[in-house]
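Appendix C reproduces, verbatim, an entry submitted by the partner laboratory led by Prof. M.T., so that reviewers can inspect both the input and the predicted structure.
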Amino acid sequence: MQKLLFQLDTDAIPNSFDTVVAYDGGADHVVRIGGMTPDNVGRIVEGTVFTRAPANKKFTALFVTGSNIADGQALFDAVRTCFFGNFRVSMMLDSNGANTTAASAVAYIARHGDPAGKRAVILAGTGPVGQRAAVMLARLGASVLVTSRQQSRAAAACSAMEQRFGVKLEAAAAADAAATTACLDGAHIVLSTGAAGIQLLSEEQWAAHPTLEIVMDANATPPLGIGGIEMSDRGATKHGKICYGALGFGGLKLEVHRACVGRLFESNTLLLDAPEVFELASELVKSR
């Protein structure tokens, strides 16, 4: 029985990155469908849940992709409403690589010590990766502050994650260096998840910081999001702090991504969102 993965992309043109990783994760055939919305996905879902016998439903799975995490969440939720009884297939959500990237970053953070009780700051955290990383850290017991240039954007992102995952997040504006420094007061962990090619934190701002323990940057396009961090840093010690660059945890991200796809074909009842993807990342980081 062939393993069929339907890639449901909310963008008009499905992301080729997700397609490649889907094949590498064990799918025999990937059906790529763009322009997916909650209004048009029903027919696709019906075709996946009614065609195979109960014992063989696990060989069909769904993968929600696209560049917008809000659109992906809406599509993911819409698909779930189509399932009933055993008429369901496994599905994962990874719009813009948000869950797998955030899970890999946070798994490495947790590897260096329990985040519970720690203060974590997600710089430019209103994007997909920042939001998911904030959720994962909060679920581990960290006090999490999400920043944006605009307070309203940070607050909106925090509210959305609180409603979806039941976590408590703080929001703050960090429109300039002084505001960013203020946000880092008492912080133990800082993770930059801003747009490519924009430096959010200079080396001077974090090098002598009295409480920071882990400094992590998800940006892989120069100039990087945090000055003094190299893309390939993986647990490097700089200025007494543990440092990670985007490539430093990027390898784990791909491993997690592939492993998630593989897990989809083990049963027809698996739903992979932020908590489930992080659990898998935590398992994999132990072997590194």
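The chain has two domains: 4-97+254-285, 103-249. Additional entries are available on request from the coordinating office.
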